[in-house]
Amino acid sequence: MDKFSLLVGNDINNISPGISWSDLLTNIKAKYQLTGLENGQKPFPMLYEEIFLNAIKMQQLNERELKTYISDSVSQIKQNEIHQLIRSLPTKNIITTNYEFSLEGPTAKVNTSLVRETTYSVFRRHETTDKTFWHIHGDCDNPTSINLGYEHYCGQLQKMRDYVVNGTNYTSDTVFKAALIKRLKQKKNLKLQSWIDLFFTQDIHILGLSLDFVEIDLWWLLTYRARNKFYRKSNFIQNQLFYYTTKKWHQIAVDKMQLLKANDVEIIVIDESDKTKYYKKILKEIKKRYQLPPDK
């Protein structure tokens, strides 16, 4: 159960019928009379800030109201076959950037986070009978935790860097205060407490995640890990990172693929255009790597 973990993005939700991010943006702009704003080439976190700042100038909008509206919208996403197949994998930890709980499915979940986080998500976790789910960009049960704007991304990164590099000052007695990198070097106090730990201790398989360059929290984590492994010669980093992509996007997003390789991420290209079949092939590839029995 502890050989590998998954990092799952929003694309698996696109198999299910329902509202897309593009639809949601259109609805938000209509709701707050901002239909004149152009999406263009604006990075999404900056577009979110633009929508929020214009809405607050016009209507004195409370940000919680906006995030609650977004939370209610994405909560309507229905689980599909891929969600179920992911849950069937023999892995204990599933990390996700998604806000809703489609991955958890109908099973009852319990918030077992070591720290009560209202805004950021270093420790945010929910447990079911046999799985731990880490919602690293917030969750729908706590709308203020949903990570959307540049301000939130930067705050999240600050918390992450403190946890990894500087150490934490949480009052909770259950959290190790020393920096993760120090604990890894000393091989002390390595009990799993944050999803960040997994990026240094287990193989991570990344699927359904575009990893846009605006995801500064994840790109920093990849870069920091790679710098420690190669520049600082940290021999305690032995795990592997894998990124799955289609043949089409591997050819289009050459710059991203080059950056992933530089950051010690192995790219696995799946030649399949049908989305459901594509994810089934990814899960089959993961099982093959760890010599797990295939689906019947």
From TrEMBL:
Source organism superkingdom: Bacteria
Name of the protein in its database record: SIR2-like domain-containing protein
Organism name: Sphingobacterium puteale
